[in-house]
C-alpha cells in the first residue's frame, strides 16, 4: 500500500525559507523518479520540481533558482528546500512518484503540507 507523508510546511514571511520532507513507503522508492506538486486555492495541482533516480532535476519556471529538490534513497525520502519564498508560493504541497514525463504515477495522494507565505 502506497503511503506518502509530507511535512515541514508552515507560515513564513516573504523572503523566508522552508524545507519540506516526504516519507514514502509501499513501493520501491529508489527506482522511481519523484516530484513535488502544489495546489493553491481555486487552482489545479501543478508540478513544482522533479528528480530522477540519477539525481537530475526539473523545476517549474516560477521556482527556478529558489527551490531545490533532493532525495535520500536510504531514507525513502524526498525533500524540497524553498528559499526566497513569495506570497504566490502559498499552497498545499504534495509529493508523488512520477513518470519520465513528470506525470504522477499513483492516484493516491497524501494529506500534503500547507505552506503560507505572508507579504
Brief overview:
This protein is mostly beta strands. The chain contains no helices and ten strands.
Overview of this structure, please?
The chain is an all-beta fold. The radius of gyration is 13 Å and the shape is globular. The chain is 0% helix and 48% strand. Strands 2-10-9-4-5-6 form a six-stranded mixed beta sheet, with no helix packed on it.
Number of helical runs? 0
Would you identify the regions where 5 or more consecutive residues have pLDDT less than 50?
none
Report Rg: 13 Å
**Ends apart, CA distance between termini:** 40 Å
What structural class results from the helix and strand content? Answer: mainly beta
Top keywords for this entry?
119 residues; mainly beta; six-stranded mixed β-sheet; four-stranded antiparallel β-sheet
Write the layout of secondary structure elements.
Layout: E1 3-7, E2 10-13, E3 18-25, E4 34-39, E5 46-51, E6 57-59, E7 67-72, E8 77-82, E9 91-97, E10 113-118
Parallel strand pairs: 2-10
Antiparallel strand pairs: 1-3, 3-8, 4-5, 4-9, 5-6, 7-8, 9-10
Amino acid at each position: 500500500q502506497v503511503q506518502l507523508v509530507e511535512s515541514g510546511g508552515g507560515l513564513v514571511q516573504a523572503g523566508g525559507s522552508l524545507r519540506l520532507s516526504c516519507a514514502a513507503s509501499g513501493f520501491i522508492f529508489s527506482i522511481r523518479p519523484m516530484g513535488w506538486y502544489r495546489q493553491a486555492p481555486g487552482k489545479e495541482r501543478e508540478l513544482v520540481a522533479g528528480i530522477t533516480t540519477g539525481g537530475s532535476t526539473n523545476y517549474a519556471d516560477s521556482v527556478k533558482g529558489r527551490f531545490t529538490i533532493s532525495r535520500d534513497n536510504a531514507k525513502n525520502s524526498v525533500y524540497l528546500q524553498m528559499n526566497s519564498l513569495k506570497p504566490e508560493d502559498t499552497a498545499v504541497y504534495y509529493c508523488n512518484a512520477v513518470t519520465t514525463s513528470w506525470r504522477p504515477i499513483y492516484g493516491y495522494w497524501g494529506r500534503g503540507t500547507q505552506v503560507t507565505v505572508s507579504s
